[in-house]
Amino acid sequence: MKKRVACIGYGALTPVGITPADCYNAAAQGRSAITLHKSTFGCANAFVASLFEDRIAIAGNYTFFDSLIIRAAAQAIDSAGIDPASDRVAFILSTIKGNIEFIGKQDISLPDSAARMARYFNNPNPATVVSNACISGLAALVQGRRMMLTGRYDYVVVVGAEVQSQFIVSGFQSLKALSEKPCKPFDASRDGLNLGEAAAAIVLGDSAIGWELAEGAIRNDANHISGPSRTGEGSYNALRYVLREADINDLSFINPHGTATMYNDEMEAIAIDRAGLANIPIFALKGCFGHTMGAAGILESIISMIACDNKTILPTKGFEMLGVSVPVQVSAAKRSCSGSSFIKLLSGFGGVNGALLFKKGGQA
Fold this sequence. Notes:
Structural class: alpha/beta
Largest sheet: 9 strands, mixed
CATH superfamily of the largest domain: Thiolase/Chalcone synthase
Strand order of the largest sheet: 5-4-6-8-1-9-16-15-10
Shape: globular
Helix content: 25-40%
Low-confidence stretches: none
CATH class of the largest domain: Alpha Beta
Number of domains: 2
Order of helices and strands: EHEEHEHEHEHEEEHEHEHHEEEEE
Radius of gyration: 19 Å
Distance between the termini: 21 Å
Number of helices: 9
CATH architecture of the largest domain: 3-Layer(aba) Sandwich
Strand content: 15-25%
Mean pLDDT: 95
C-alpha cells in the first residue's frame, strides 16, 4: 500500500508568537509585528518589517539563526513524539540566506547549519538543504514527501527559517520591492512587500490521520531573474498538476504567496483563474508575518492546516479593494468553510513556482 505522507508534528516561532497556536491566533485576530525600523542592521534607509526583538541564541556557540531552526524542530519533534536520533529519521533545512550576516567574518554555510541541527538531535543521517528562492519551504516539503515515499525513512523533519540582515534588506531595497508601510496583498493600493523573520517545522510521517501532503509540484517558467510571468505560466502548471488529485468541490481555500508586490499578486490571480479556481476563497498571510522567505512555505502551511481544522478562512490583513485584473475571491474578513482540503502556492525569483495539495485524514 502506498504511504500516506502526513504532517504529524508542527513547530513555529515568529515575532507575534512562539508556538503554532500563537501564530495562528495572531493571524486570526489580525495581529502583526510589522513596524518601521530605522538604522537596524546598519541599513542607511529605514524599512518596514517583522523582526524578533529577542535575538538571544541558545548556549553552545550557536548563532541566532541556528538557534531558531533547532527550537522550531524541537517543537515539531515533541508534538510528533518521535525519536530524532533514529537512523530512520531525516532532516531537511529550507532557507535562502541562512547565516549570511556572518559573511566575511566566519564561514557558516547552509550545509553547516543543517548539519549542526541534525547533530543537536544526535541524528546520524546527512541533513539535506533546500534553497530555491522563495519556494524553498514548499520545495522542502515536496522533497520530504519524496523521501518518505522511497521507504528509506519513517519520518522526515522539515525545517524552514530566515533572519534578516543588512545584505538582504539592501538587496530588496535596490530592487524597489519594499513598501514603506504595512503591506496590502492583492489590494489596489499595494506597493511592495515587508520582510519577516520566522522559523517553522513540520514532521512528516506515514499516518492515516492528520493532514496529508496529497500532491506537490514545482515548475520553472524561466520568465525572468526577479520578475514573475505575466501569464502565471509556472503557477498555473503547478496548480494543474496538483489538481489531478483534488476534488474542487472540497477545497476550502487557496493560500497564495501574496507578497503584495504589483506583479506577483497579479500573476497568482491570473494563474488561479486560468486553473478554474477563481471562485475558491483565497487569503494571504504576509500582512501578519511579512515575507519570511525560506520559512514561508512551512509557516504558512501550518497556519493553513490549523485554519482548516477550525473550519476558518482567515482574513488577508491589509486587503481592502481588489487590485488584480481577474475577480479572485480574496478574503477580507474571517469566515467559515466546510471543505477538507486546500492548496498552498508559492513563487520566487528565477521563475520558480510551486503548489501543494493538502487533504485531511481521520481524527486523532
